[in-house]
Design brief:
It contains 26 helices and 29 strands. By secondary structure, it is of the alpha/beta class. The protein folds into three domains: about 160 residues, 3-Layer(aba) Sandwich (Rossmann fold), CATH 3.40.50; about 150 residues, Rossmann fold, CATH 3.40.50; about 210 residues, Rossmann fold (3-Layer(aba) Sandwich), CATH 3.40.50. β5 and β6 form a beta hairpin. α18 packs across α23, α19 crosses α22 and α20 runs parallel beside α21. The chain is elongated and about 95 Å long. The two termini are about 45 Å apart.
Length: about 725
């Protein structure tokens, strides 16, 4: 069977279940079937459709109302047919020059090849225009009461379709042409079986009403195509490969990790989540909400014997919450998360494209794991339920999930940055990723800049209508920060779908910090640290081993500070805590060697018998000990080259507020938190002079200025804590 279908109003229209059914038919459920897009769009405008997960990939594409014909996979021209069409086109410049006198023609500003397209009122087309076009060796095609195409003579959707089918040797009795407008009429004149979908132009319906080989469908779009396939007996009883599956969970969290830690023996431990994100997400189930938490569980095999895929999380606290565990092997996790996500996506997310490594075999594995997550989610969610997907590891889940469960409301939150479109588009699969995210109903980011970066990426993917924008001030910095913008897009429309967007910077658990500071062991630790500092000003640096954190740039700046300000000798100490990367992250090993060497050089140059300028700790600290260091630090020096947000800055502020401290926060203006934390001293980590000057300013800041800045910061951090983040996000998702 060969389906030759128009796009807009036909294949791209109709109810989602029908679109899903048709998509599944052409994704392996009908061996030997062929799909041909036959559209008035230019080829460039067809590209977004190719990455829409709800649309099957075509074998061939006829675009430009028949003037372009290419292979669906490679997009290379189908020869010699394309060459023959090009030979009879007089050239765009010649056509436009000849039509200059016809001032009522308004040229369409859309991609087009071997044709010229205009807007025009039906009554304005006259014999003089027809004569000029005929002398050019062209002909006119008018449709939808406003679109006028000048095409090479004898070229149209129908003629190109017939010639393509002849060249490929298709059996004409197995071909179905589907359309909805007058520019599809020539397809129905080929003699192929045809179907005019239910939402078609009345003029097309009247034009084909007497043709016996044309079925006039009742259903719109894809539903009409399915009617036509059945009417002409071309379906042979095929059904979609995936049956509907409904669960009972009204809210489904899709996260890469479980809400509890599992030991190798299968026992549970409380999750190590000091920033409070997991406890916050769990709180949404504390009121008895029926829910599921979809995440991986490391197992010896993907089908472990005796594995319980669905377990309660905490029956006392969350009586209706279940963990839907996906068994993945150590190799699965290593490849999907530690290697591919960190080697291909992580560098791009933070604009370090030179460090990105793209392996297509790894991408296939990534797709496989994302599909497994989507299938598990589809089986858990209730009809019309809400699914909240988290982070870039699961970028492709919405694509698979929308096909499986078109009834669901899908929300997505990025816990990282989102890069500018020119950087994001370096990813070989950027179109597939954007196509997947556009299946969401709501997408959240930390800050407005990331929203705008995403919108720019979408605009390079498909025609995009901006539905709404939201002013950023006073919540966010606008012009005083590298990541500032004055307004953010809050709604877009792409390919007929409305997607709402929002900026929701994650907060921290301030109550947890307050509780920790009340512990006697922590108070003793604070006293011990202060005694060891012996009155010296403490500069605190706390970061994970990662090239995006700017560890080397920071150490070089500290060295420059000591060179430029010798009066600081023995008066300041850099407490440099570096948390090791997860095991298996080979990309960071060379960075550690460089950090070790640079710390050694600085201490070798400046140390005295009773003063070591850099106290370097390469290990993970218990969170309570981290809070103790927050309490004593005079300056928090947080200068990543890029960072999605940076919760360390917020934890430092909350701690200082709790102990009544007046510490200074020096923050990279390329950290997402910089646009939110009014009162921080912003610095450019790429500029050594800026780094030195800002750190020196923080060390010498007047006490009243320090107090004022910290009071502003404390108010922001405590008002916008992690609970407020979660509640605000879900409120935005559920808003009409």
């Amino acid at each position: 069977m060969v389906l030759a279908t128009d796009l807009d109003g036909t294949l791209l229209a109709g109810p989602l279940p029908a679109r899903r059914h048709l998509c599944e038919l052409f994704r392996g459920n009908m061996p030997g079937s062929k799909l041909i897009f036959v559209t008035g769009r230019g080829l460039e405008s067809v590209l977004p459709v190719l990455n829409d997960p709800t649309v099957p990939r075509p074998d061939y594409i006829i675009a430009d109302v028949g003037a372009t014909v290419v292979y669906g996979e490679s997009l290379l021209p189908v020869m010699p047919l394309q060459q023959e069409i090009a030979a009879v086109w007089p050239g765009t410049h010649r056509v436009l020059e000849a039509l200059v006198p016809f001032t009522y023609l308004e040229q369409q500003t859309v991609p087009q090849e071997r044709r010229c397209s205009f807007f025009v009122q039906e009554g304005r087309i006259d014999d003089e225009l027809r004569l000029v076009v005929n002398e050019l060796g062209c002909e006119l095609l008018f449709s939808a009461q406003r679109y006028l195409d000048v095409l090479p003579k004898g070229i149209g959707k129908g003629s190109t379709l017939r010639r393509l089918c002849e060249q490929l040797g298709f059996d004409f009795e197995t071909i179905l042409a589907a359309g909805d407008s007058l520019n599809d009429l020539s397809m129905f004149a080929t003699g192929f079986h045809g179907v005019v979908v239910g939402n078609a132009e009345p003029a097309l319906v009247e034009a084909v009403r007497q043709l016996e080989h044309i079925h006039l469908a009742v259903g719109d779009g894809c539903a009409g195509i399915l009617e036509g396939l059945t009417h002409h007996q071309l379906l042979n009883g095929e059904k979609p490969a995936i049956a509907d599956c409904l669960g009972e969970s009204d809210l489904v969290m899709v996260y890469h990790r479980l809400p509890f830690d599992e030991t190798l023996e299968g026992k549970r431990q409380r999750p190590k989540s000091p920033n409070g994100i997991i406890p916050t997400l769990l709180n949404f189930f504390s009121g008895g909400t029926t829910g599921s938490w979809v995440a991986w569980s490391q197992q010896p095999t993907r089908e472990p014997e005796g594995f319980d895929a669905r377990v309660t999380v905490d029956k006392k606290r969350y009586q209706n919450l279940y963990a839907a565990r996906i068994p993945l092997t150590e190799n699965d996790i290593d490849l999907f998360y530690k290697k591919f996500s960190k080697e291909a996506f992580w560098p791009i997310i933070f604009s370090f494209s030179d460090k990105a490594v793209f392996r297509h075999t790894h991408w296939e594995h990534y797709l496989e794991i994302n599909e497994v997550f989507a299938k598990k989610t589809a089986s858990e969610a209730s009809k019309g339920g809400l699914v909240w997907v988290h982070d870039y590891n699961l970028w492709m889940v919405p694509a698979f999930l929308r096909m499986l469960r078109p009834d669901l409301k899908i929300a997505f939150f990025h816990h990282t940055a989102f890069p500018s479109s020119d950087v994001f588009n370096i990813i070989p699969w950027h179109r597939e990723i954007i196509g997947s995210l556009l299946q969401c109903d709501y997408i959240g980011f930390h800050i407005p800049r990331y929203v705008e970066n995403f919108v720019d990426a979408v605009r390079s993917y498909a025609p995009t209508e901006i539905l709404d924008t939201t002013p950023c001030a006073p919540r966010f910095l606008t012009y005083g920060c590298a990541l500032g913008v004055d307004s953010a897009t809050s709604g877009i429309k792409v390919a007929g779908r409305n997607i709402r967007l929002g900026a929701h910077p994650v907060g921290i658990d301030c109550d947890q910090i307050d509780h920790i500071l009340q512990k006697h062991s922590v108070r003793r630790k604070i006293k011990s640290i202060r005694a060891e500092l012996a009155g010296r000003s403490a500069i605190l640096s706390l970061e994970r081993l990662d090239y995006v954190k700017g560890s080397l740039e920071k150490l070089l700046a500290f060295e420059a500070l000591l060179d430029k300000h010798p009066e600081l000798a023995a008066k300041v100490v850099l407490l440099n805590f570096v948390t090791p990367a997860a095991q298996g992250m080979e990309v960071y090993q060379s960075l550690r060697v460089e950090v070790d060497q640079l710390v050694g050089r600085i201490n070798g140059r400046f140390s005295t018998l009773d003063w070591t300028p850099v106290r370097y700790f390469y290990r993970s600290l218990p969170y309570e000990e981290v809070v103790a260091y927050y309490a004593v630090a005079d300056v928090a020096w947080i200068t990543p080259l890029r960072d999605g947000l940076n919760l360390v800055a917020k934890e430092y502020v909350a701690t200082q507020g709790s102990v009544g401290g007046n510490g200074a926060l020096v923050l990279s203006e390329f950290a997402g938190a910089a646009v939110e934390l009014h009162g921080a001293l912003l610095t450019n980590p790429y500029d050594a002079t800026s780094m030195v000057q800002t750190l020196h300013s923080a060390l010498t800041l007047a006490s009243d200025d320090r107090a004022y800045r910290m009071s502003r910061l404390v108010s922001i951090v405590r008002t916008n804590d992690v609970r407020a983040w979660g509640e605000t996000f879900l409120k935005a998702v559920n808003a009409d």
